[in-house]
């Protein structure tokens, strides 16, 4: 900006957005000083570089306001984990199922895990059935982001809400 611009000539854009044309850097700086504004290089890679006459302090303030508003409006997606056991009873399954639905409706991803203890690991098909049943029951509100897969003593599946899944 201003004296830090190192080009000989620049394409100049006025304060109200009109094209002034290609000017030498001295002429452009003089026009900016006469308007009591700054000369800002907005496209340094162009041939010739594009400079604009503007109030740089006001411009930076408005940019920061826009960034703050964008940060305020963005939703942080959490990963919630729900654990199942291989020999889970029906009522316990229903409670955990309702939690999964609640998390998905809030826009969070869900990591559904079946934990195997002791010799239960030899019956991994039971865990597969539990996770398949869960994925079928919540199919209308979510996508399976990662299919059930055995990792150590746990079988893990990740579900993502339909409105935020890629």
Automatic annotation (TrEMBL):
This is Translation initiation factor IF-3. Pfam families: IF3_C, IF3_N. Its main location: cytoplasm. The keyword Metal-binding does not apply. GO terms for biological process: ribosome disassembly. Belongs to the IF-3 family. One of its GO terms (cellular component) is membrane. Residues 77-162 form the Translation initiation factor 3 C-terminal domain. HAMAP family: IF_3. Residues 1-70 form the Translation initiation factor 3 N-terminal domain. The keyword Zinc does not apply. GO terms for molecular function: ribosome binding; translation initiation factor activity. Keywords: Cytoplasm, Initiation factor, Protein biosynthesis. The gene is infC.
């Amino acid at each position: 900006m201003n004296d830090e611009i190192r080009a000989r000539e620049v394409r100049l854009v006025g304060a109200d957005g009109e094209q002034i044309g290609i000017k030498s850097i001295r002429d452009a700086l003089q026009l900016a000083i006469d308007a009591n504004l700054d000369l800002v290089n907005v496209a340094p890679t162009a041939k010739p570089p594009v400079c604009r006459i503007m109030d740089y302090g006001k411009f930076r303030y408005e940019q920061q306001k826009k960034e703050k508003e964008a940060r305020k409006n963005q939703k942080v997606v959490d990963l919630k984990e729900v654990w199942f056991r291989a020999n889970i009873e029906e009522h316990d399954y229903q409670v955990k199922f309702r939690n999964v639905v609640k998390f998905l409706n809030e826009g969070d991803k869900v990591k559904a895990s079946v934990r195997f203890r002791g010799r239960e690991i030899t019956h991994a098909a039971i865990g597969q059935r539990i996770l398949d049943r869960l994925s079928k029951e919540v199919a209308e509100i979510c996508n399976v982001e990662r299919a059930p897969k055995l990792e150590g003593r746990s079988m893990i599946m990740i579900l993502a809400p339909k409105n935020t899944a890629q």
